[in-house]
Amino acid sequence: MFFSVTSAQLDAWLAAFMFPFARLLGLLMAAPVFSTRGIPVRVRLAVGIGIAIALLPAAPPMPDIAPGSGIGLLVMGEQVFIGAAIGFTVRLVFAAIDLAGSFIGMQMGLSFALFFDPNSGGQSAVLADFMSMVATLLFLSLNGHLVMIHLLANSFEWLPVGAALAGEGWAVIPRAGATIFATGLLLSLPVLAVLLVTNTALGVLTRAAPQLNLFAIGFPVTMAVGFFSLIMLMGNFGPVLQDLFERGFEIVPMLLKALTPAP
């Protein structure tokens, strides 16, 4: 007795794996930590296959669409785009932290301290990279990478595969980005305020004693005050970043539910 498989059964098995795998690949391409260029593409692909296999029992039934057909390829491309949107939403938090580090470094006089960042493919401020590294370590310690996979697993309930997308739902991303970037600016305000007072005091001192060399005195004083303020900020850095991460995670279901068309 031979084991026979019909084309319909084969298409159903492939659809059950390929559609979730496509959404997962989009997440791995855009999400923080997973999209790091230091991780080889083969490793990310192997991790994606393993996660997709693990999600198969919990995934809802996939639509009756052959993955190799034209409609199936369009649906797979749509899933990649949805996964990338989920990862990009969480990445906005790290972009806000980089922005805060750039503001602080510029006020401290470290705007010239740039080096090539292989992750972004360009030059970035040293202080911004330092804050991004601290945020990444905290993100991993809080199991943020596991939360993203959990959100991806739930995304099939919030936005099923093959469902029509509401175009106005994409407006959630820029609105959320504005809120998160404003929070990132607020994160840098304590250090910026201290540096503003320091620069004002140095300006008054130079006005009162013109013989003082502002460049010889102001630069080390500004850097010392900036690093001291940054050390003081690090004591409360963890809870603020945790709140930022939670906001980023809360935006994901909002985005997916907004993309679901109204009945």
Mean pLDDT comes to: 80
**Can you write the helix and strand succession as a string?**
HHHEEHHHHH
What profile does the largest beta sheet have? 2 strands, antiparallel
Radius of gyration: 24 Å
- How many DSSP H or I helices? 8
C-alpha termini separation: 49 Å
Structural class: mainly alpha
Principal-axes geometry comes out as elongated
Portion of residues within helices: over 70%
Could you give the order of strands across the largest sheet? Answer: 1-2
Strand content: under 5%
Low-confidence stretches: none
**Number of domains as seen in the coordinates:** 1
**Overall strand count:** 2
Walk me through what this model shows.
This protein has one domain. Helix 3 runs parallel beside helix 6 and helix 6 (172-208) packs across helix 7 (214-234). Strand 1 (114-117) and strand 2 (122-125) form a beta hairpin. By secondary structure, it is mainly α. A two-stranded antiparallel ribbon has the order 1-2. The chain has helices at 7-30, 41-55, 70-108, 126-141, 144-158, 172-208, 214-234, 237-259, and strands at 114-117, 122-125. The protein is built from eight helices and two strands.
Highlighted features:
263 residues; mainly alpha; two-stranded antiparallel sheet; 2 strands
Write a short abstract of this structure.
The protein is 72% helix and 3% strand. The chain has 263 residues and is mainly alpha-helical.
How do the strands and helices of this protein lay out in sequence?
Elements: H1 7-30, H2 41-55, H3 70-108, E1 114-117, E2 122-125, H4 126-141, H5 144-158, H6 172-208, H7 214-234, H8 237-259
Antiparallel strand pairs: 1-2
Helix pairs in contact: 1-2, 1-3, 3-4, 3-6, 3-8, 5-8, 6-7, 6-8
